[in-house]
Amino acid sequence: MIVAESKPIKELLEMVKDFKKILVVGCKGCVTVCNVGGAKEVGILASSLRIHGRKEGRDVVVGEHTLERQCDPEYIDELEEIVGDYDAVISIACGVGPQFLSERYPEKKVFPGVNTKFMGGAVEHGVWAERCAGCGTCAIHLFGGLCPIARCSKSLLNGPCGGSSHGKCEISKDVDCIWDMIVNKMTEQGRLSELLEFRPPKSWTTARDGGPRKMIREELVK
Amino acid sequence: MDDFKPQIVAFCCSNCASSAAKVSHGMKKALPDNIKLIQVPCTGRIETLHLLKPFEEGADGVYVAGCQEDSCQYISGITKAAKRVKQVKDILEGLGIEPERIDVFQMSAGKGQEFVEVANRMVDTVKGLGPVPTA
Lengths: 222, 135
Ligand code: SF4
Ligand code: SF4
What we know:
The structure holds 2 protein chains of 2 kinds. Chain A is α/β, with parallel strands linked by helices. Chain A has 2 domains: 2-117, Rossmann fold; 133-209, no CATH class. In chain A, 27% of the residues lie in helices and 23% in strands. Chain A has helices spanning 9-15, 30-33, 39-55, 73-76, 80-83, 96-104, 148-151, 178-188, and strands at residues 2-6, 21-27, 61-67, 88-91, 109-112, 114-124, 127-132, 168-169, 172-176. In chain A, strands 3-2-4-5 form a 4-stranded parallel beta sheet, with helices on both faces. A 3-stranded antiparallel beta sheet of chain A has the order 1-6-7. In chain A, strands 8-9 form a two-stranded antiparallel sheet. Chain A starts with a strand and ends in a 34-residue tail after the last helix. Chain B is an alpha/beta fold. In chain B, strands 2-1-3-4 form a 4-stranded parallel beta sheet, with helices on both faces. In chain B, helix 3 links the parallel strand 3 and strand 4 (102-106). In chain B, helix 1 packs across helix 4 (112-129). The longest helix of chain B is centred in the middle third of the chain and has 18 residues, at 77-94. Chain A binds chain B through residues 8-10, 13, 40, 43-44, 47-48, 50-52, 54-58, and chain B through 47-49, 52-53, 55-56, 58, 91-92, 94-97, 132-135. The complex binds iron/sulfur cluster (2 copies). The site of one iron/sulfur cluster (SF4) has 10 residues of chain A, from helix 7.
């Protein structure tokens, strides 16, 4: 999933300080699962904005709405009837959501309510960790099913570096050295020699380095 | 400010805090009448939003009264509640409202005296802070 965290409430208050009618829009996708942008969090943010409005003696109207997904135009249409009543919209979906909203409703001022962090998963309840950097050409099968691009601090494809120590990365004892894990895994699977095979350098043109990406699936295009 | 009577909402677990409330009633130790009691089956069910809503409606303080950590029937109810109270403290602080307006207390089932003491303590704290400003 895409993992995000709430923006500090102070930052959000500053963003919307000039508006009296604010719509908070959540998303039932990834951000619901990582407990930052679903209907519950819409309620919490909306309530916080109302409490602040009350405290400041400002007559703030805060609406709440949670969409199936904010990254699909068909669901965004649902706001058409509602959005007109508000001056500002805070989207608490990942960074895709507020962009889709501002593209669909160009006259509205749209604000991001969360900081989008990474693609990852829950490693325990309440803890999420990065797993993929979206390089566009997945190669984890070469590394024992572990991704050195997302999980090595230097994205080394020929690690470990000299900073690997007792299974930890040199940047912090809280960060596992993924190359230590890769070597252990390949050893356990009796495939260590595969790491010595010559491979041409990875092409980064499919990653962000190749510019903004787009995917066209002809069989689906109407 | 002396005549300020804070409006306080108390969420109480029906196992311990509410039985403490009953005992206190038997002892004729009355709870201050500006405390609105909301009984819940377990404090672990209290969501962050439940704790914020009273402030939205004009409450001056909110507290959760639940079991001791080792006597929660549902294992971790009060621990969860304490974490949510902490989350609301952070939110209030961000909104420029004193975080002391919300708190969590742990008590044992029969302690009627303690139940009333906690209520009075909360009233005193919030009285000291005054009403949530409404500019
Ligand atoms: S190799 Fe690329 S696509 Fe595969 S997990 Fe790593 S970053 Fe993601
Ligand atoms: S110590 Fe390991 S994870 Fe850290 S930069 Fe070096 S190889 Fe990568």
